[in-house]
Amino acid sequence: MINPHGSDTLNPRIVEDSARADLERKATELPSIIVSSSAAASAVMLASGYFTPCDGFMSLDTALSVATNMKFPKTGLLWPTPIMNIVQKKDLPENIQAGTQLSLLDPNVPGNPILAVQDITEVHELSDADRSTIIENVFGTTDPNHPGVATLLSMGDTLLAGPIQVFNYSYFAADFPETFHTAGQIRDEIHSRGWETIVAFQTRNPMHRAHEELCRMAQQAVAADGILIHMLLGKLKAGDIPADVRDASIRKMVELYFPENSVMVTGYGFDMMYAGPREAVLHAIFRQNAGCTHLIVGRDHAGVGDYYGAFDAQTIFDDIPDSALEIEIYRGDHTAWSKKLNKVVMFRDVPDHSPVDFLNLSGSKVREMLAAGQTLPPEFARPEVAEILSAHYQKESIKSVSYTHLTLPTSDLV
Length: 414
Description:
The protein is of the alpha/beta class. It contains 13 helices and 15 strands. The chain has helices at residues 17-27, 37-47, 60-69, 128-139, 147-153, 172-175, 183-193, 209-222, 243-257, 277-289, 312-315, 363-371, 383-407; strands spanning 32-34, 56-57, 86-87, 101-105, 114-119, 122-125, 158-166, 198-203, 226-232, 263-268, 294-297, 328-331, 335-338, 343-346, 358-359. Strands 1, 2, 3, 4, 5, 6 and 7 form a 7-stranded mixed β-sheet that branches. The chain has a 5-stranded parallel β-sheet with strand order 10-9-8-11-12, with helices on both faces. It has a 3-stranded antiparallel β-sheet with strand order 14-13-15, covered by helices on one side. α3 runs parallel beside α4 (128-139), α9 runs antiparallel to α13 and α12 (363-371) packs across α13. The longest helix is centred in the C-terminal third of the chain and has 25 residues, at 383-407. Mean pLDDT is 92; it is low at 401-414.
């Protein structure tokens, strides 16, 4: 099986059962702080082995090196995005300094239970210049309207560096017991299925016919034994489809339209960064850690709005030495239903087509149709998938109408 990134073995930072009781008891006596959702999600990724070989939150020097050069400063190991625990100085308990320990509390679980213990190696005030350097290099913009930029700007002013020991997987294992998998669990299942070549598909959205066929095209092109559909289960921007709805629709598609033992449907506990090209490299690293040999990188991978070019997330790999990653990239083009050929095609494969030869629906049009209970064309979405999505959008539409009526000013009711 393919090696983990920069290591011969995975480095999951989850506390072993034999040490759990003692550390949990100690953690309750340590000073504590509620961390950001982003830091909590990073802790889950560290616990799950996806961020191998990392052992915790980066120092400022490492974060700046990763942001500007995509490398760890001492080893030169490829890493595209900083892993940071940034907090508000005013919330930090007294006497937290290098050599102390801190309990990290989960912001996403009621009661804010202890998620992890961090061994503090550095406490550093994050200057505006350092923050701007990280933001501009990672996101390619400093626009505060970019959701990833906005998240980083909201985090705080103090960076806490040091390794962590994690007690649990936050809400992910409980809320998605069938779907949430660690990197080690995926590797174990790949082994049990007897797969050697595995192509991974990253998604934060439901899968329509174009996504379904893109997976098949990639599987055929690389002669893969199986497909890993690996969905993000964490925080998204407002308006995106919730993870439970995505999960149900994708599972239904796989159940009905893929051969048995050809697809694994799993998910990981992380918040979307919307970092486009940089996030695509991160996706490649943690799919390698999960045992995949190939990653599909399609049009506007991990993008948002018009901050990135359609294929920037592919061309970034042109600047990465072959020796820096073992996983290979399958580069997908825009895919859509061809009215001429009566099947889903990649644009690059049909140079004789013009825009009118494709069935294309905008995201807003799809949402409008689903909310109205209208049937999506079967060439665009499988009927069973559309039914699940339509139920969600109609429920949200009813909520929206109810909320509008409840909050409408009296003067507008006359």
